[in-house]
Amino acid sequence: MTQFRALVAVLVAVILIGAVPASADDWDDFAAEAFAADWKDFTPEAFAAAQREDKPILIDVTATWCSVCRAQHQVLDQLVKEPKYRNLVVFKVDFDTQKDALRALNVQKQSTLIVFMGDKEIDLSVGDTSQFSIEGLLDKTL
Asked: What is the pLDDT of residues 78-120, one digit of tens each?
């Protein structure tokens, strides 16, 4: 019986060790996934649901050909992994294909970022790639 308990203890230890990230970089990736904001494709229904739940929301209007959008995404990809943004819902709106959404949101240009708290629009930014100011924009939802 003692050997059986020892075997079970060893198996549990192996399983637990396998579940823990092996290096600091792995831990950063693990933690980022655990704390990352929720990214979604924009639909009016999903947006309305997030608003009804009084969630902090970021609308990211982007275009695949836009270099400013790519620069914004590099900043956003890092910021939304921070624990303070774990409740943030990020909706991506494609500037070229989602014209109805652009009209509903009153957006004229790609690289537009709009933050909401529930159904209240808090602020917006167009063409900004500064990590400091994008973080300030997101912080308005906290």
From this structure: 999 999 999 999 999 999 999 999 999 999 999 999 999 999 9
Single out the residue of 79, 106, 102 nearest to residue 92, CA to CA.
102
How many domains, in total, are found in the chain? 2
pTM: 0.74
Distance of alpha carbon 13 from the chain centroid? 33
Residues 6+ apart with CB under 8 A from 69: 62, 63, 110, 111
What CATH number does residue 46 fall under? 3.40.30.10
Residues 120 and 132 in one domain: yes
Regarding whether 65 and 123 lie in a shared domain, the answer is yes
Six-digit token string for 43: 């639909």
Tell me how far apart the alpha carbons of residues 137 and 26 are, in angstroms, rounded to a whole number. Answer: 29
CA distance 24 to 3: 35
In eight-state DSSP terms, residue 20 is S
DSSP summary character for residue 81: T
Judgement on whether residues 24 and 40 belong to the same structural domain of the protein: no
